[in-house]
Amino acid sequence: TAELVEFIGPEKDVPAPDVNTNEQIMAWMMDTYSMHMRQTVTAVVTGKPINMGGSRGRREATGRGIMIVCDEAVKQLGLSPASSRVIVQGFGNVGSNAARLMAKAGYKVIGIAELKGGIYNKNGIDTEALWEYSERTGAIQGFPDADQADDAELLTSECEILIPAATENQITSRNASRIKCRILAEGANGPTTAAADEILADKGVFVIPDILCNAGGVTTSYFEWVQDRQGYFWKESVVNEELAELMKTAFEDVVRYAKTHNVNNRIAAYMLAIDRVAYTIRQRGFYA
Q1: What pairing do the DSSP bridges indicate for beta strands 108-113 and 118-120?
Q2: CA atoms of 263 and 88, how far apart (whole Å)
Q3: How is residue 42 annotated by DSSP?
Q4: 3-state helix, strand, coil in the chain (%, to 5)
Q5: Got the DSSP string for 201-268?
Q6: Cα(176)–Cα(173) distance, integer angstroms
Q7: pLDDT value at 11 more than 50
Q8: Reduced to 3 states, what is the DSSP secondary structure of residue 102?
Q9: Which of 202, 220, 236, 257 has the fewest Cβ atoms within 10 Å of its own Cβ atom?
């Protein structure tokens, strides 16, 4: 429609998939815009199928980014993947890929929480088998190699890393004091309320804020846009390497800002972002 063309025109933001969208929907959006422009414009949206200008590695990118920053966080705290138990809330695209990639990297994924109930295995969940089971049945409940668990209780269970990768406002003033993780990696957007954030800071929980932790998806969307614009597509290993470099650098910058200014990681991330924009505006010239 004309409204869609106006929304995703070249001077606007480039949309990417999120909740309730997928590669097919992004392809339809690209096709609709292209028909109105009377030429194929692949760079107008990202998260497309690979054969329609999508990027290799885009589907797993948000989960991979979570793993990358968790790798850096465990180093900060003197831990290791092998010694780190992980609980993930949500087993959609973000949560499932984070769980599967982290399990391959040596982390012990002991719990998966979902709205209809969770599963738990203190010895570790076979995340590949769970993914195949969920693809076949449409749910994680009933998975034979884990015990059923209450989803709310899983959030406050003992672990080294907790990854809320579902919806917003999951960690609040009601349950923050009972959170037992050492690292909170925010895979979802806004999973922690402001009041809970203060409680977690007092408890000494190392929070990786959402604007850093789940940035792997939007970063790889940028890579997709670049590839579409240049008409040349990268190998998946190149995509993953470039993503790792940017995520590690961003993590180091945020942690350094937090230490320098004696603030938590979330405030440091905001400060860093605002400083960069302000500095660039000053550099640009008279009319910015």
Answers
A1: antiparallel
A2: 26
A3: G
A4: 55, 10, 35
A5: HHHT-EEE-HHHHTTHHHHHHHHHHHHHHHT----HHHHHHHHHHHHHHHHHHHHHHHHHHT--HHHH
A6: 5
A7: no
A8: helix
A9: 202
Give residue 175's identity as a one-letter amino acid code.
Answer: N
Beta strands per DSSP E along 48-151: 85-89, 108-113, 118-120, 147-149
In whole angstroms, what is the distance from residue 243 CA to residue 86 CA? 22
Mean pLDDT of 170-178: 96
Tokens of 140: 């994680």
User: How far does Cα 83 stand from its chain's mean position?
Assistant: 22
Dist CA 165 CA 185 (whole Å) = 9
User: Whole-prediction pTM value?
Assistant: 0.92
Measure the CA–CA gap between 253 and 272, rounded to whole angstroms.
8
CB 155 within 8 A of CB 89: yes
Distances (CA, A) of 139 to 112, 117, 135, 156: 11, 10, 8, 22
Measuring CA to CA, which residue among 285, 262, 240 is closest to residue 59? 240
pLDDT of 2 > 90? The answer is no
Residues in the chain: 288
| CA gyration radius, the chain | 20
Is a pLDDT exceeding 60 seen at residue 7? no
What pLDDT does 12 receive? Answer: 56
The torsion angles phi and psi of 283, rounded to 5 degrees, stand at: -70, -35
